[in-house]
Amino acid sequence: MGADHHQHLVRCHRAHSQFGHLERAATLAGRLVKNSGGEVGRDGITANIVLPGRVATQRILFLDQAKAERENRPVEEVTAESTGSIPLGHYGNPQEYADVVTFLASERASYVTGSVIRIDGGLIASI
User: Fold this and answer.
1) N or C: more exposed end of the chain, with fewer CB within 10 A?
2) CB 116 within 8 A of CB 100
3) Within a 13 Å sphere around the CA of 79, how many CA atoms are in the beta-carbon half?
4) Domain identity same for 87 and 121
């Protein structure tokens, strides 16, 4: 494969509610990507991982509604509590997530490899 041809591997991992599990998984995934990036980088392949936080999807709405029903609370209260734990104060927009993945899969990201990128509004302070 010539230097002008690049392939991009972008792995997307779902975040867990238990921060310890997420941080451990991210660390292990990061090591895997770092190792993969070193092994295949000379072939023009980049390898990165994207860790989404709570993105405003039908699944998140369903989870908020289910929690509200379980706890006999208004869904707005559950959503406010959840978004209140996110430093940016809101769920992510699916387009924001898609934009990062699209960038990583593009030629413009041909020098980005071995990275773990969180799209979580600052929810996890560090990995």
Assistant:
1) N
2) no
3) 14
4) no
SS3 letters for the chain? CCCCCCEEEEEECCCCCCHHHHHHHHHHHHHHHHHHHHHHHHHCEEEEEEEECCECCHHHHHHHHHHHHHHCCCHHHHHHHHHHCCCCCCCECHHHHHHHHHHHCCHHHCCCCCEEEEECCCCCCCC
Question: Structure pTM?
Answer: 0.72
Radius of gyration of the chain from Cα atoms?
17
Please give the residue range of the domain that contains residue 45: 1-55+93-127
Residues 10 and 72 in one domain: no
**pLDDT single digits (tens) 30-64:** 666 666 656 667 778 888 888 888 999 999 999 99
